[in-house]
Specification:
Blueprint: E1 2-3, H1 8-19, E2 24-28, H2 31-41, E3 45-49, H3 55-69, E4 74-77, H4 92-120, E5 123-128, H5 141-161, E6 166-173, H6 194-206, E7 211-214, H7 218-227, H8 230-240, H9 244-247, H10 251-267, H11 278-290, H12 315-325, H13 332-339, H14 347-369, H15 376-387, H16 396-417, E8 421-422, E9 425-426, H17 434-443, H18 448-455, H19 460-486, H20 489-498, H21 502-514, H22 517-530, H23 535-560, E10 564-566, E11 569-572, H24 576-579, H25 585-593, H26 596-608, H27 612-624, H28 627-647, H29 654-668
Parallel strand pairs: 1-2, 2-3, 4-5, 5-6, 6-7
Antiparallel strand pairs: 8-9, 10-11
Helix pairs in contact: 1-2, 1-6, 2-11, 3-4, 4-5, 12-16, 13-14, 14-16, 14-17, 15-16, 15-22, 15-29, 16-17, 16-18, 18-19, 19-21, 19-22, 21-23, 22-23, 23-28, 23-29, 25-26, 25-28, 28-29
Length: 673
């Protein structure tokens, strides 16, 4: 098994090993490249595309070897990336990727193959490191650290594997003439060709050793260098100009290398891991593609069937997906899914049950969904998927589930606060009994399991990941609603009496972070999981979504003071929060800006009860003191800080720019207000 087999050293390893009688499983993030290598090698090779940082990829590679050949004798961790330049200027995302690939992928591979080799009585793990593991270079700090870690891991595993017959070796080559080294400055020795490294690996397989330096003549030089005093070593390094290798690299070539690396990452197909033949079947599909045979045109590059063959960004497609989960017309299928248990219904009772469930569970939600407006959850999920290089076409049911959760949350909020208006028409509980509306809103939460079954029918691992994210968001939403229903009168009174407003702002922020921040964080996190993003990307995008949701609540509270209109119709009664004496960010900012005596009088007027004219006067006071401008700045800061954590982890592309714009539009509702 060879990782990073699509090009360079990995490709040479595939050729060299098959010439020595090995059968090989080839893994690489670049699907086209690994298929090309397999075609060149011939029938003795099985290609599998996937991200080597993901433990599921390692599991699929083991599976492919055992299914295709019955055993797995050699595992070669070759995949790696090189980041260079002054340490303080290094892009954090590049450094993170080096750690994830150069060390994380090696760990994942060793963990996956170790029990297999132990069970079969032995095997050999070869980890391709670098001379930088023993001779770190300026400009290659993180890269050198990852390779030194691999060398230490290899030595520890070598000792641990001796009793069970597992050999572990590390091969440490000097600079190799591959795309990964493009632009690095040549010093002293000529760059190696990939075949030289491949032959060294074959040599260590025939004669196991703990560490092999390539070229072999460099090994004694490095050993001797470690014995010299530090000052003498530094002097020799300066004379040989070793610091210029990476610090003076050709920036254009290095940039091109990382851009290509990013594009390969985005082009990689996910590894199917459910069902025993998946990995081998994927490799056969790859051979069919390369040979010009047709694939199922109804499936995308991830192998998922698109929903109705339509673009999930369109309103019509989203309506279809919502209707699949929450049909507006009474049907037997809907009844069976909503009941979720076998039901004994006679034909005379069935139609009545269909109709009753539709009226009580579906229509209150449809009333809200049919009111129009932008579908913010699905827009944001689509933007995240596209920024990560994934198509949204396969995941329409999951977007619909988040739309239904958002609608259900809105209905329950309207009921609890007795809000009469929701975009352009009555709220969900007005034409329906409040108790029915609350129940229907709650029932809308429970469409996720059916959506996951439709979108990820054979991927149990990702289904469980999304379940966990979604359920955590539901728990957080209800916790936020609990804090919201209790209100923050006690904290407001304490702030006015002490002059310390920070505890009030912290509790308000927490409430908004839980509701609606958790919902938006979950949908962005889910989109990242669906795109098989790296863990750092998933976390950063979840924080971005959380910030978008929190900022949305702040801008909603600002809009509440004036009311919002669309197409001439009111979408929210002006000053609802003031009439309810609800503590919001605008009100908290106001009392913090006003003299304490004025702030106390304003708060007491709210608690005492306002009429409509009174709420307008208070709203004007809030506006005049500059509180609304401060709230907008609060929302903008939240968004900017979260985006700063995401920007370096996403490719510099139009899709990334669009994600930024969608986040801004969602917060400020530019297409609606």
């Amino acid at each position: 098994m060879i990782t990073g087999a699509g090009r360079g050293i990995g490709e040479s390893l595939a050729r060299e090993l098959t010439q020595h009688g090995f059968r090989v499983v080839l893994g690489d993030i670049d699907k086209a490249a690994v298929q090309a290598t397999a075609m060149a090698v011939g029938a003795r090779a099985v290609p599998v595309a996937g991200d080597m940082r993901d433990p599921r990829t390692a599991a699929a590679l083991v599976q492919a070897a055992l299914q295709g050949f019955g055993r797995l004798d050699v595992w070669i961790n070759n995949a790696g990336v090189i980041g260079d330049g002054p340490f303080e200027e290094q892009v954090p995302a590049h450094a993170a990727r080096m750690v994830e690939v150069n060390l994380g992928a090696v760990l994942a591979g060793c963990r996956a193959v170790w029990p297999v080799m132990r069970a079969q009585g032995g095997g050999h793990i070869v980890n391709v490191a670098s001379v930088c593991a023993v001779k770190p270079l300026a400009g290659l700090a993180v890269y050198s650290a990852t390779k030194a870690a691999v060398a230490a891991l290899s030595e520890a595993l070598r000792r641990e594997g001796r009793p069970v017959g597992i050999h572990t070796s590390v091969v440490a080559p000097y600079m190799v003439s591959t795309p990964a080294a493009a632009g690095l400055r040549q010093r002293l020795l000529r760059p190696l060709c990939p075949t030289e490294v491949a032959r060294a690996v074959v040599g260590v397989l025939h004669r196991p050793r703990g560490c092999v330096v390539v070229p072999r003549s460099l090994g004694p030089v490095l050993s001797l260098g470690r014995l010299l005093p530090q000052r003498l070593r530094d002097l020799l390094d300066d004379v040989m100009g070793l610091d210029t290798i990476a610090l003076n690299a050709d920036r254009g070539q290095r940039t091109a290398y990382w851009e290509a690396l990013t594009s390969h990452s985005l082009a990689a197909a996910p590894i199917p891991v459910s069902g025993e033949p998946a990995a081998v079947l994927d490799s056969r599909r790859g051979r069919d593609d390369a040979a010009g045979r047709s694939r199922d045109p109804s499936r995308d590059r991830a192998g998922h069937a698109p929903c109705h063959g339509t673009d999930q960004n369109s309103a019509g497609a989203m309506a279809e997906n919502i209707d699949r989960l929450h049909p507006a017309r009474p049907t037997a299928e809907m009844t069976q899914e909503l009941l979720a248990v076998p039901a004994l219904l006679g034909s005379d009772a069935a139609e009545r049950v269909h109709q009753r469930l539709c009226e009580s569970l579906v229509q209150p939600v449809q009333n809200l969904l049919d009111s129009g407006g932008q579908r913010w959850p699905s827009r944001l999920m689509t933007a995240v998927l596209e920024a990560l290089g994934s198509r949204s076409r396969s995941f329409g049911p999951l977007m619909a589930a988040f739309e239904l959760m958002y609608a259900g949350t809105s209905i329950i909020d309207d009921c609890q606060h007795d809000s009469p208006l929701r975009p352009g028409r009555s709220s969900g509980h007005v034409p329906h009994d409040t108790a029915f509306a609350v129940n229907a809103g709650t029932a809308a939460y429970f469409t996720m399991d059916r959506a996951l079954g439709a979108a990820l029918p054979s991927d149990s691992f990702r289904r469980m990941q999304v379940y966990e994210v979604y359920l955590a968001a539901l728990r957080a939403t209800h916790a936020g609603r609990a804090l919201d229903l209790q209100g923050h009168h006690e904290e407001m009174n304490t702030a006015l009496s002490t002059g310390h407003y920070e505890p009030l702002f912290r509790l308000l922020s927490l409430t908004h972070q839980l509701k609606p921040g958790a919902l938006f964080g979950a949908l962005c996190h889910t989109a990242a999981l669906l795109a098989e993003a790296a863990p750092a990307q998933c976390s950063a995008l979840a924080r971005l979504g959380e910030a978008v949701g929190t900022a949305c609540q702040i801008t909603d509270d600002v809009a509440d003071l004036e009311g919002v209109r669309r197409d001439g119709a009111g979408t929210q009664q002006a000053g609802e929060n003031l009439l309810r004496a609800k503590v919001t960010f605008p009100l908290a900012r106001t009392v913090a800006l006003l003299p304490r005596q004025d702030a106390t009088a304003l708060w007491q007027s709210l608690v005492g009860g306002l009429d409509t004219d009174g709420s307008h006067r208070v709203a004007a006071r809030i506006h005049d003191c500059g509180a609304l401008a401060r709230c907008r700045a609060d929302a903008e800061t939240l968004l900017d800080d979260a985006w700063a954590g995401v920007h370096g982890l996403l490719p510099d592309s139009l899709a990334t720019a669009r994600l930024r714009q969608v986040c801004t539009d969602t917060v400020y509702r530019r297409s609606v207000g």
